[in-house]
Amino acid sequence: MTLIQPPLPFLGLMLFGAGQLRSRRNLGRVLLFTGFIAAYLSCTEGMGQLLAKYWIGTPAALNPPQLAMLKAESERDHKLAVLVLGGGIRQDVPEYAGPRPNEISQERLLFGIWLAKRLNAPLGYSGGIGWTAKRQIDTEAAVAGRIARDEHGMPLRWAEEQSKDTRENAALSLSMLKKDGIKTVVLVTQDMHMPRSMRAFQTKAGDEIRVIAAPVGQRRDAMSKWHDWVPSATGLARVNYAVYEWVANVAGH
Question: In the chain, what's the furthest Cα-to-Cα distance?
């Protein structure tokens, strides 16, 4: 996966173009220029925003009227739940002397806690040990549960600890929620992960549970300022995330 993520493919294109300069100068120049422009753009917030909106198709954030309607629904029949999807943990964080959510999971968890309190709804978390997490010992849900309870006063109602990917998130967590009579799930995950997550959850939920998207990590505007098109670590990370989600979608995960 790393080999197809920017800027490596474009650096390879530039190297290939450089190799063509002696025998096919014009082709070599075109490849060098194309590779340079692509590598540059792949490190910008602007390109990340373009890919998120028009390539991945991220949903809009929940707005105040929607939140008000969901809160009224939650308080009326108590069949609404907020569910956060895990995005990984750091197993050994020295300053905390133990495991902590990574940056993505932390963002999702904090928003899920805020949302559950805002909607007066119970909170769940889905995340075990991912397929590639070879050195992970603690499950994501266990780590998130401790933080939610001890640091935010929001114990998890559901902690699903067996899933290894998004499809298992859906299958295992929905099974738990159905047993408790939940009819509406407000799903919290990253904006670019949301289309894939919604597909998995809606497939498993069928007509029994309604799934509402509550994306995090969105940018209101990351294309109109000059600095949106200046290379940055944040820009590169966002573009790489878009490529990762596209590949996962194509692979059907």
Answer: 74
Q: Indicate the Cα dihedral angle 8, 12, 15, 20, nearest 10°.
A: -160
34: closest CA among 16, 19, 50? 16
pTM: 0.91
Cβ pair 185, 83 in contact under 8 A = yes
CB under 8 Å to 115, separation ≥6 — which residues? 62, 82, 121, 186, 188, 214
The ranges assigned to domains in the chain are 2-56+229-251, 64-216
CA-CA-CA-CA torsion sign (167, 173, 178, 182): negative
pLDDT (tens digit, 9 = 90+) per residue, 16-56? 999 999 899 999 999 999 999 999 999 999 999 999 999 99
CATH superfamily of 64-216: HUPs (3.40.50.620)
Rounded to whole angstroms, the Cα distance separating 198 from 212 reads 8
Q: Read off φ and ψ for residue 206, nearest 5 degrees.
A: 60, -135
pLDDT in tens, 157-204: 999 999 999 999 999 999 999 999 999 999 999 999 999 999 999 999
